[in-house]
Amino acid sequence: MNTQINAQAITDSVTRIVNQHLQSSTEIKQTDSLKERGMDSIVCMRIIVELENEFNIEIEDEDLLIENYENMNTITELMNRLVAKI
């Protein structure tokens, strides 16, 4: 199943999930700082849980680095890497 998940589908899912949790009144760009857009540790963990469910993956401790969740691009890169492993 996961071989059918392409890069655009991952980007779309990350964008949807982040936007749902940050509930911004303006569009969040791929390179916007999510911390500046209101993401705190609790929101970040909610996003992580939803990403795990969305892609049927488990995000390991070594991938729980703040630099992986700075913006939608860094999250998308992480998801692409993790999805490619399964």
Task: Explain the layout of strands and helices.
Blueprint: H1 7-22, H2 41-55, H3 72-85
Helix pairs in contact: 1-2, 1-3
Descriptive overview:
It contains 3 helices and no strands. By secondary structure, it is mostly helical. Helix 1 (about 5-20) packs antiparallel against helix 2 and helix 1 (about 5-20) crosses helix 3 (about 70-85). The longest helix is centred in the first third of the chain and has 16 residues, at about 5-20.
| Total helical elements | 3
Intertermini distance: 10 Å
Low-confidence stretches: none
Task: Give me the count of strands.
Answer: 0
| Element order: H for helix, E for strand | HHH
- Based on CA atoms alone, the radius of gyration comes out at 12 Å
The proportion of residues in beta strands is under 5%
